Automatic annotation (TrEMBL), chains A, B:
Segments crossing the lipid bilayer: none
Protein family membership: Belongs to the CinA family.
PANTHER family, alphabetized: NICOTINAMIDE-NUCLEOTIDE AMIDOHYDROLASE PNCC, NMN AMIDOHYDROLASE-LIKE PROTEIN YFAY
CDD domains cross-referenced by the UniProt entry: cinA
Sequence ranges assigned to domain MoaB/Mog in this UniProt record: 8-175
Pfam families linked: CinA, CinA_KH, MoCF_biosynth
InterPro entries: CinA, CinA-like_C, CinA_C, CinA_KH, Competence-induced_CinA, MoaB/Mog-like_dom_sf, MoaB/Mog_dom
Lineage: superkingdom: Bacteria
This protein's name: CinA-like protein
Amino acid sequence: MPHIPDAEIITIGDELLYGQVIDTNSAFMGQELGKLGIRVRQITSVSDRADEIVQALDAARTRAQVVLITGGLGPTKDDLTKNILTEYFHTELVLNEASLRDVESIFARFNRPMMEVNRQQAYLPASCTPVRNVVGTAPGMWFEDQGVVFVSMPGVPFEMKRMMTDTVLPRLKRHFQTPPIEHIVVQTVGLGESFLAEKIAAWEDALPANMRLAYLPYLGGVRLRLTGSDDGQPDLRGRMEARMPELRALLGDFIFAEGEVPLEAAVGQLLTERGLTLGTAESCTGGYVAHKLTSVAGSSRYFLGSIISYHNDIKVKELGVSTESLAAHGAVSEEVVRQMAEGARQRLGVDVAIATSGIAGPDGGSEEKPVGTFWLAYADEHQTVARKITFNRGRQLNIEYATTSVLNLLRQSLPQR
Amino acid sequence: MPHIPDAEIITIGDELLYGQVIDTNSAFMGQELGKLGIRVRQITSVSDRADEIVQALDAARTRAQVVLITGGLGPTKDDLTKNILTEYFHTELVLNEASLRDVESIFARFNRPMMEVNRQQAYLPASCTPVRNVVGTAPGMWFEDQGVVFVSMPGVPFEMKRMMTDTVLPRLKRHFQTPPIEHIVVQTVGLGESFLAEKIAAWEDALPANMRLAYLPYLGGVRLRLTGSDDGQPDLRGRMEARMPELRALLGDFIFAEGEVPLEAAVGQLLTERGLTLGTAESCTGGYVAHKLTSVAGSSRYFLGSIISYHNDIKVKELGVSTESLAAHGAVSEEVVRQMAEGARQRLGVDVAIATSGIAGPDGGSEEKPVGTFWLAYADEHQTVARKITFNRGRQLNIEYATTSVLNLLRQSLPQR
């Protein structure tokens, strides 16, 4: 009989509590558990201290049947998790030959000498089932204790991810055969959370009890996630889908994609469909637009290149911006950003170019053009479009917001097929 | 009498448990509390459900005297924190005139109509002291209850940060006058955690009981943080500093900075000191090197621009790479990456240029040049240096690792003053 367990995640490490490291592992684990229909009840980050780790384990097992633990498995002296678990489960460390071979092969592959601290990593609690680590030196450990599954994994994200995907998730799936929950994600850009909420309030109010809508704001837009849970009736997915046309009609062009598709990938999809090539000319965004575009695998099919003209000389020499325009209007101006987009189109030999010129801050602002003033432009063979935005929440966020905005300008300006 | 409280952080939102959003707030709060000498005992992420939030509050107050809460204060229906806290502290919602004026001024500033849901945000629990939000519509709330301070803040990072800095931290400081803990951070690059640990094992073993060393690995290197806690003896900082020369001698050129200085800022500092300008020519990194460099405020003093030559035509046309070299060796080769760096130096008119050409994946690899093969180059007026690295942990990490590596190549190759 299928049984839906609750899960908890415990991440271990002083560095998390001191804020020296951001916990990205929990998000990955939460996403993957969700796909199996396993709900994460709580995420707990604790220090490297034994008593606090034990308290967290004791608390988690009262609420959940799966406890995933990351961190504290490294070879160094502040990594105590393995010893704590050995004591917690009243067992002892024994050499695991298979794990030793894995550790040895890691060192052989990188052609580096193996240290004694690494050999120690192949000693594992006798009562656990080892979880192979094929990309690092710390094996994972799977324990079952009084009906609760505990899995300890390294805190290094790519090691944990590989271990989850290869071993832990398939094994959890066998253990707990659960009905899935369903998610439908709609990506919007250009509308704040409150405005969105007001627009779709009636639609949201009409949702049945087993469907919930979550607003997931990001810089420049909101992802909407409709989650449906099993109510014993057939075709949960179909009943969720049936509610979508009304939502789509309410939001119109603010929707740029459905599913987990970032804006840069949605734009890439449009360019591919229309057979167009793209380049960028960037001043204030300093390469971030190109980076976002090239973060999409396969982007070389439509993205050809960029000219990052941080200095005005490069705007003139490499993009053909006129020195008169720079002198008359300054680099952050409609005239200059238009010339940048048009110049990039010519110089890079692309069908479509986008350009940014603005003041990311914290310095460089003036009364007329304060920090957070950005000019964006789009150019194709038929038209050049410029747009001014103002946004000031600190240098990094300003760069990100300008990037999202120029990608949205591109999306809205591309010629129809 | 000074009293050192422990703190806990509770972050609220289904999106955290589903992994749709990464919790970056806790790291910021942990860092800032640490500077006040307040230790974070636990970070707990819970869902939007009232009973689970109440359980987390009940548990946190048994362990800590400060409980910072973020999330669930938005204007939408899944944001329940304010109502839950109102009930938890047996109080009622009343209109707060000052908060209403703040909300109104936010809408006035952005020249947008205010919605009824936003007006509701100015209703606050009668027993709390409001915490002003000058950059968003949800006020924070400060409660004191049976010796424990609870502060509820929005989950939007820049709103929370502003509120912490302007109001919450100064107020906590007045409340709990605590002796500081001291941190010394040493930034290293190019050496893995195990090798580093082995190199400094004797030094680490000799640390007194009130000093602890933490290894904080990042992609391409490790940050070391020495933390000293008050032991009743004078000059804690001085006694920590006295241990540093030996560590510095052990690690030598692997250390690129001390303090919270990222590699791109350390490189910028070197360029500034030596009066040199920089440009980049990027293929596989697609603008990420330029982005990292320009993420540093004031980088326009030394960074002039880049040519992102994703397509080979742009390598030829804009960087002067020879078509013969491309045909004979391919784009990912020592010959081509050297020409890219030299070409960028010429075309961008910079003193120093760095270049990348590699296969970020997931496609494009071959037997001879598998995914994760990267050629990096550095060029100045006296020399061109090329380096090959191999690293394959997925597209994004490959791009990041290549970026760190080429910045390190730059650091190591720059002419001495």
